[in-house]
Amino acid sequence: MNAPFRRNHAFYSLVALAAAAVLFVAVNILAGSWTKRLDLTEQRLYTLSPGSRSVLGQIDEPITVRFYYSDRLGREVPAYGTYATRVRELLDEYSALSGGKIRVEQLNPLPFSDEEDRAVAFGLQGVPITQGGEQVYFGLAATNSTDDEQVIPFLQPERERFLEYDLTKLVYNLANPKKKVVALISDLPLEGDVMAMRMTGRPPQPWAIMEQLRAFFEMRQLGGEVSEIGDDVAVVMVVHPKNLNAQTQYAIDQFVLKGGRAIVFVDPNSEAERSRPNPMRGPVEDASSSLDPLMKAWGVEVVKGRVLGDRLSARKVNAGGSSRIQAVDYVAWLTLRPSNFDTSDPVTADLNLVNVASTGIVRKAEGGTTEIKPLIHSSPASMEIDAAEFAAPVPDVLGLLNRFQSQNKAETIAARVQGPVKTAFPDGPPKKEPPKPASDSEEDKKKAEEEAKKIEADHAKAMERHVAQSKQPVNLIVVADTDILDDRFWVNSQDFFGQRMQVPTANNADFVANAIENLTGSNDLIGLRSRGTSSRPFERVQVLQRDAEQQFRAKEKELQDKLKDVEKKLADIRNQGQGQGAQAILTPEQQRSIDQFRTEMVATRKELRDVQLALRKDIDRLQSVVQFVNIGLIPIVVAAFAILLGLWRRSRRRRGRSRTAAARA
Questions:
Q1: What's the per-residue H, E or C state across 326-372?
Q2: What is the pLDDT of residues 275-312, one digit of tens each?
Q3: How many other C-beta atoms can be found within 10 angstroms of the C-beta atom of residue 538?
Q4: Are 111 and 134 in contact (CB under 8 A)?
């Protein structure tokens, strides 16, 4: 009886093991095909945004995405293999959500194969992996039914945070091949420094912001005297307007009154301009810009000659030399975070971090009829600073910090302007002066008269088209900073085998692109651009550092004042001695005062060390708590829960057995 039972028991065990193996394989197959995943990241980095889903749902024509990935790259560098799996999974998700409109092909371009030739023809970036010149590929080439192309030459793991943005941008551009036109009027070399090109012979390098904007809009540069802005222009972008002629201002005025949208960047101190002086003009004396006649008509002003300082948003800079690093809060360079943004406006709702430098202050103009809605603002710990403080090549960072006095008022840096407005040119378009005859000859006089008549006729036609009041409430965005566009404040650019790779460190470009897209009436990509770009600082640590540093700076200033006072006294003594023609000798009283000061200096330095030590202790204590919560507390809670659950189940079984025994009895 026992032997057959043992044989059956062994058979059942083998069947159970086989079933478990089949179940294990089936679960893995189902898990591999299951597209749902649990995303616990704060910014939902592994969950497709509503913007991406909206773009995928609006595709009208089939799009073919060719994913070129060399298997050898993954074998040689496993990190690329892991990233390739992530790319492929995301592409499959795009294909599923598009209802099959996106067709994905994965190709392995072997050396000297047809696939490699096609990859090269698309413009993908080949990377040599052997000394023999064998190249590997890891990029995307996508086409639509009309043979428009979008290419990602090489998928860098460093841009993994922006993978969804890059893929959705690629699909969006193919689904919307006709881009909206943005007219650019700029006194900054956004398209590249032509003077540098003439001096070096190299082609001008556009600013990174222009490359970002061109991905979504047709950027049309307008220069010289602009007589009219075309009807096909969706938005006019005015950057750092310095002495715009009246005709160009009138063209902008009429464009806005007729329903056009505008985004304007002005600055009381453009560090972007100061860092790129024109060799033909010499050093920049006045780096400010304004658009006063139009701004006044729009009911908004940027305070003249005043730079905004913010103690809480200040960036750390090195105020020492190359041999001595001294990290100090620079109150004119600001790092702005979600608490500084209007989270109810789609332009700024999803921004995480924006960097600005020596920015201005936006306010409502006296008598303005428009609503000024702040999009970006400072903290209440702000103050106005005279723009003349920043005229020197190297600003007095420490002096600005020591002289800082909060006005307990948040100031606006960027604002949306909405409402009815009147023209800044109530008398009509600017009238050109009639030309004077080149000479006293009858022929030259006749030419001058004909030209004058033509000018009069053109002016009469312009008066007929003149608009004195907006047909509908205007929608404008005014930004009191131009350095928000400067590469050095928001992006790291690297050269990757001849390709320029850009890794954003802040959402500056996202803000500009969001603003333009919102002004054109589309919001699909706004919530997508800003994902994954924020640094995650310990804000409490920053507050501790700032408070302790404020005490440290006050003590430091006190010590520096004492040192200057003693140095002055010693210099006076030396001057007296030199005036007498003999070496100066310190009196006992002077020597005692110096000894007393040295004692005070040692005591003050000890106080400084105590402040720094207290700061360090607070930070270390907070760091220990954070490490304990992340490393120790969660496992302890899980273990405690498991123990309590086990005890509860054991107690429950014991009570069950007791009840059974009692029932039998």
A1: CEEEEEEEEEECHHHECCCCCCCCCCCCEEEECCCCEEECCCCCCEE
A2: 876 655 567 788 999 999 999 999 999 999 999 999 99
A3: 13
A4: yes
